UniProtKB/TrEMBL annotation:
Domain of life where this protein originates: Bacteria
Keywords: Cytoplasm, Hydrolase, RNA-binding, tRNA-binding
Gene Ontology biological-process annotations: protein quality control for misfolded or incompletely synthesized proteins; rescue of stalled ribosome
Residue ranges crossing the lipid bilayer per the database entry: none
Keyword Endoplasmic reticulum: no
Binding site for tRNA: Y10, Y58, N60, N106
NCBIfam families per the UniProt record, alphabetical: pth (TIGR00447)
Catalytic activity field: an N-acyl-L-alpha-aminoacyl-tRNA + H2O = an N-acyl-L-amino acid + a tRNA + H(+)
PROSITE patterns recorded: PEPT_TRNA_HYDROL_2
Species: Pontimonas salivibrio
Protein name: Peptidyl-tRNA hydrolase
Any single GO CC term annotated in Swiss-Prot or TrEMBL for this entry: cytoplasm
Principal subcellular localization: cytoplasm
Encoding gene (name): pth
Length: 182
């Protein structure tokens, strides 16, 4: 699941980096995301048990669509991977973990509440802290500056690799690879 907000107004903002990763991954596989009911935009990999999804609605209300997708595809929260922005990590950093708190991230808070458990995997993508006294909510709704473009493009590609490595080799192997790289 790649978290973000809908619409052109939020395209390629810091808050939408998770959504951008899922869209990039689908394109790289030659697949197109399509609307599935009111759950969100979804594509299932042919011959593999992988579903990419961008929940419908806004980031802070991601829980309902995520739990609906979990039920629709008859899976469990433990098999869900949520890709999202993280203010507490520098731009270009990737961290993976299973479970834990929401760290003030309202999208994660809502998913935890809707699933009834925090035991889903998170792919945390650093977007950096806002400068000075800028409101974090305002900061994450801004696009990345050109000076960070190459780093953001790299981390989006690395995030796909991190998810693939997690699926094939497990969480610990993915953590060893990406936690030592950042």
């Amino acid at each position: 699941m790649g978290l973000g907000n809908p619409g052109d107004k939020y395209a390629h903002t810091r808050h939408n980096i998770g959504q951008d990763v899922v869209t990039d991954w689908a394109k790289a596989q030659g697949l197109a995301l399509k609307r599935l009911k009111s759950f969100g935009d979804v594509v299932k990999f042919p011959a593999q048990p992988i579903v990419l999804a961008v929940p419908s609605g806004y980031m802070n209300t991601s829980g309902g669509p995520v739990s609906s997708l979990v039920r629709y595809f008859s899976t469990t929260p433990e098999r869900v991977i949520v890709i999202h922005d993280d203010l507490d990590l520098p731009v270009g950093t990737i961290r993976l973990k299973r479970g834990g708190g929401h760290g003030g991230h309202n999208g994660l808070r809502d998913i935890h509440k809707a699933l009834g458990t925090p035991d889903f995997v998170r792919i945390r993508l650093g977007v950096g802290r806002p400068p000075g006294r800028m409101d974090p909510a305002e900061y994450v709704l801004r696009t990345f500056p050109k000076a960070e473009a190459a780093e953001v493009e790299r981390v989006r590609a690395d995030a796909i690799d991190a998810v693939e490595r997690f699926i094939v080799e497990g969480l610990e192997a993915a953590q060893q690879r990406f936690h030592s790289a950042g």
